Amino acid sequence: MPPRHDAVLFDLDGTLLDTAPDFVTAINRVLAERGLPPHPESMVRAAVSHGSAGLIAATFDLEASHPDFEPLRQALLAHYRTCLTDETRLFPGMERVLEALAVRGIPWGIVTNKPAQYTDAIVARLPWPSPPATVICPDHVTRTKPDPEPVLLACRQLDLAPGRAIYVGDHLRDIEAGRGAGTATVAAAYGYLDADENPAEWGADHIIERADQLIDILF
C-alpha cells in the first residue's frame, strides 16, 4: 500500500525532540547564579513551548518590558548553548517513525520557531536514522508560526504540494500553520502542553498520545 503522505514535517521542541531536560539545566544554572532554588522539571516542561522568553516569564514572573527580563533571557541562552544536547533525545517511539520513513524513502523535515543557531547545532549533533531533508527556522522566513509561511517554504524546498505533506506539532500554532498551508495536521498530545490546553480543540486531523502512533496514520 502506498504511503498516505509524501513527506512528514515536524515541530522540534515537544514534538520531535524532548529538549526540556537541557532547558532545566540552563534555567537552574541561572537561578543558582542568583542564589535561588532550582525549579522542578514539570514547571520547565510547561513553559518550553513558549521559548526562552516564556521560560523567563514563567520562572521570574516578569513582563518582557521589565529591565531585568532581557539580561535574564540572555543568561539563559548562554547556559543553554553549553548543554544543547546533553540530555535532549527523540521522544519515545519517534525513532521507529523515522526508521519507517527511511525504509520507505519518504523525506521528513523540521519546521520550528527555534532560531537556527540552536536548531542547526542540535540537528548536527544528534544521530538520525536519516537526516532531515529540510529545516526551517525563523531566520528563513518573514513570518513565523502560526503563519503558514514556514510550512509552505518547507514544502517548496521538498518540491511538494502542501496537500501531500503532513505536519506534526504540540501547540495550537503548529496546527494553525499546517492548516493555513494546506497540509494534513497531527496534534502531539504528549508534548509540552499548558495545563489548560486541550489538543482536541485545535482542529487537527489526528491526535496522538505517543509518537509511534504516527505509523498507523502515515502508512
Describe this structure in words.
- By secondary structure, the protein is α/β, with parallel strands linked by helices.
- The protein folds into two domains: 7-18 and 88-218, Rossmann fold (3-Layer(aba) Sandwich), CATH 3.40.50; 20-81.
- Helix content is 41%, strand content 13%.
- It has nine helices and eight strands.
- The strands form two sheets. Strands 5-4-1-6-7-8 form a six-stranded parallel beta sheet, with helices on both faces. Strands 2-3 form a two-stranded antiparallel sheet.
- Helix 6 links the parallel strand 4 (108-111) and strand 5 (134-136).
- It is globular.
- The N and C termini lie close together (8 Å).
Low-pLDDT runs of 5+ residues are none
Instruction: Specify the biggest β-sheet.
Output: 6 strands, parallel
- Average predicted local confidence, pLDDT: 95
Order of strands in the sheet with most strands: 5-4-1-6-7-8
Question: Helical region count?
Answer: 9
Question: What's this entry about, in short?
Answer:
With 219 residues, the chain is of the alpha/beta class. The protein is built from 9 helices and 8 strands.
